[in-house]
Amino acid sequence: MKSFASMKRLKNEKRQEAITSSGIKEKVMSTVIEDIIARKVFNGRGEETIEVDMITSTGFGRVAAPAGKSRGKAEVVYYPQGGVEQAVKKVEEVVAPEIVGLNADSQEEIDKTLHEIDGSKDFRAIGGNTAFAISLANAEAAANSSGLLLFQYLGGQVANELPFPLGNTISGGQHTQGKSPDIQEFLVLSYGADSFLEAATANVQVHKKTRELLGKKDKLFNGGKSDEGAWVANIGNAEALDVMAETCEEVSGESGFECGLGIDVASSSLWNGRTKTYDYQREKKKRDSGEQLEFILELIRKYHLVYVEDPFHEEDFEGFAELTKRVKDCLICGDDLFTTNGERLSRGIRLHAANAVIVKVNQIGTLSDALETIEMAKKNGYTPVMSHRSGDTCDWHIAHLAVAFKCPIIKTGVVEGSRIAKINELVRIEEFLGDRARMADVKIH
Ligand code: PGA
Ligand code: ZN
User: Fold this and answer.
1) Would you say 131 and 114 are in contact if contact means Cβ atoms under 8 Å apart?
2) For atom 4 of ligand 1, which residue has the closest CA?
3) Per-residue pLDDT at 9 exceeds 70
4) How many CA atoms lie within 13 Å of 7's alpha carbon, on the beta-carbon side?
5) Of 360, 406, 411, 422, which one is the catalytic site residue?
6) Integer Cα distance of 78 and 84 in angstroms
7) Which of 235, 246, 315, 320 is the Cys-Cys partner for 353 at CB 3.0 to 4.6 Å?
8) pLDDT at position 5, please?
């Protein structure tokens, strides 16, 4: 019996033959996948991760997968049992025989084939990170084969909008250990800048000034940083917000444009399902859902927050909806809530749960799945926020995805190697676009 991929391969060959007779054989043949090589490498936390090389007759793509620490329950399973080593073996034994010979320019077909090979709903057989690395390396190889940059290949000639960088400046919660704020991330969003370079520069200024102020608040602070390059200090939520409000205001004054303040509450990690409360250990306070709503509303009002991620736990669509209804000029964004999953986002849209959605391609597995979620978000007035993971690598592909898929914001830290890799790639894209480059239209609702 023929495998489904070998039947598709036959179909592809027929298509190539047909096209060959009309004289453009070379172009079509150039995207045929010749080999896939997978290997074990490390992410910035020193954890093992998978990297994939996709080789076509005239192109090449290489992608390494990132990893989250405060993961949503509905994310795909990163690796099969046996971890990265097993995933590498699966690529050699199960995936490569099905994919080699297909056309890299048929992204949807590659992604569909990955689903078919896996057979589960959550990529537990080959691993979601395996699917992610193959899917994205395929797009990169296809772009490379056509002599285009990834953002041009995926976004076409009209792709000329740069996202605003949203950067983690002070870390807390699960991204730290010991005495730090309960809220996971304190973020800067320089949404008034005229160019990406100016926005990134302002974020770096905020990050720098924050260090100076933290030294005054915490005498023992010695410049310690989290995985994402954000400061880790012995302070509470309010102090972190006070510091950030001050630095954002100062940099806004100096730069002449708005540097907004945001938070990622990552509430699922505070939620205690038994007591039905959000447990703020440092503050020694437990808040039920109603109190959590009032607390977040108060923070938005007091600090003029323009961005709030995961203010309620990942199953509380109603809590999200109530908050979204009551705020103005603030993005309410679902990360663990949606996990880049179209079904979960469509439930959120029905319930008016939020107005923004985090896009982490490895939460869902393939590029096609992520694109579907982004399209759904845009159609329904949700702002898609392309995002890194806390355990990332110097892979820069999400910079291209943000531009190609018109995500007005990219969440990728301010400093630190893995974050800077993406930011610097956006600087290059902006330079490449030259006069055509525009900043995206960011809707602070
Ligand atoms: P991660 O989460 O550690 O799962 O990448 C970061 C975030 O919550 O945005
Ligand atoms: Zn988050």
Assistant:
1) yes
2) 68
3) no
4) 5
5) 360
6) 9
7) 320
8) 53
How many angstroms separate the alpha carbon of residue 202 from the centre of ligand 2? 22
73 is an active site residue:
no
What's the rounded Cα separation, in Å, for the pair 111 and 63?
Answer: 15
- Could you tell me the maximum CA-CA distance found in the chain, to the nearest angstrom? 75
Report the residue among 43, 176, 269, 389 best suited for mutation to probe ligand 1: largest number of ligand atoms under 8 A from its CB. 389
Tell me: the pLDDT tens digits for 408-428?
999 999 999 999 999 999 999
Q: What are 247-298's pLDDT values in tens digits?
A: 999 999 999 999 999 999 999 999 999 999 999 999 999 999 999 999 999 9
Distant-in-sequence, close-in-space partners of 332: CB < 8 Å, separation ≥ 6: 308, 311, 320, 323, 324, 354, 355, 356
The answer on pLDDT for 1 being more than 50 is no
Cα distances (angstroms) measured from residue 240 to each of 186, 200, 415: 7, 21, 18
Distance, CA of 411 to CA of 167 (rounded, Å): 6
Question: 71 with 169: CB under 8 angstroms?
Answer: no
Report the mean per-residue pLDDT for the chain. Answer: 94
Residue range 423-436: average pLDDT? 98
User: Crossing angle, helix 196-217 and helix 237-255, to 10 degrees?
Assistant: 140
From the CB of 55, is ligand 1 less than 6 Å away?
A: no
Q: Is 389 in the pocket of ligand 1 (CB under 6 A)?
A: yes
Q: pLDDT class for 3, splitting at 50, 70, 90?
A: low
CA distance 435 to 322: 43
3-state secondary structure of 69: coil
What values do phi and psi take at 225, rounded to 5?
Answer: -130, 155
Q: How far apart are CA 158 and CA 264, in angstroms?
A: 32
Q: What pLDDT does 2 receive?
A: 46
Q: How confident is the model at residue 210 (pLDDT cuts 50, 70, 90)?
A: very high
Q: Which of 303, 214, 299 is nearest to 259 (CA)?
A: 303
The single-letter code of the amino acid at 5 is A
335 lines ligand 1 (CB under 6 A): yes
pLDDT, position 148? 97
Task: Please say whether the beta carbons of 313 and 277 come within 8 A.
Answer: no
Nearest atom in ligand 1 to 67's CA: 5
**Rounded CA gap, 169 and 8, in Å?**
48
Which residue puts its alpha carbon closest to atom 7 of ligand 1? Answer: 70
